[in-house]
Amino acid sequence: MKKILFGGVFIVLSVASFGQSQNYQTHTLFMYGFMKYVQWPAEDAQGDFEIAVLGDSPILAELKLMAEKKKLGTRTIHVTKITSIDEVKKSHILYISPAFNPRFADLAAKVGDQSILMITELAPATSKGNINFVNKDGKLAFEMNQASLTKQHLKASNELIRMAITN
Q1: What's the predicted TM-score (pTM) here?
Q2: N or C: more exposed end of the chain, with fewer CB within 10 A?
Q3: Read out DSSP for the chain?
Q4: Predicted confidence (pLDDT) per residue in 105-125, tens digit
């Protein structure tokens, strides 16, 4: 039943408009789904669930609201803002604001093969993260780079893979 509900939520969200003003509540709902349907290594499945937002983005406020209201199972969700690549440290998710897209190579070198799910907002031709929010036919969608996920020791559920644009 959860799989059907998850699929329904993503289908509904994928028809949400992307073009007008970006709806970061929708982005946050997608990210909560990623948290539930991406598997981190066993050593990262303990303690609080950490999300870092690199740079300025309206998603920060939405993620903080979500963290106040929701948990990931029994795990508390913490959201922090960081302002430079030097501040990147171990987290479960690293959301990369568009201002840092030109420095993605430096960021990827800093993250290395740590189990950090990197999420970006890029045009499909320039996407580099593990998961990238994209505009597909005027609608919010996400693409997933499975080779990148494997490098980060992360595994996406089959349900999530079916919803994604894969490359």
Answers
A1: 0.84
A2: N
A3: -HHHHHHHHHHHHHTSB-SSS--HHHHHHHHHHHHHHEEPPGGGSSS-EEEEEES--THHHHHHHHHHH-EETTEEEEEEEE-SGGG--S-SEEEE-GGGGGGHHHHHHHHTTSS-EEEEE--GGG--SSEEEEEETTEEEEEE-HHHHHHTT-EE-HHHHHHSEE-
A4: 899 999 999 999 999 986 554
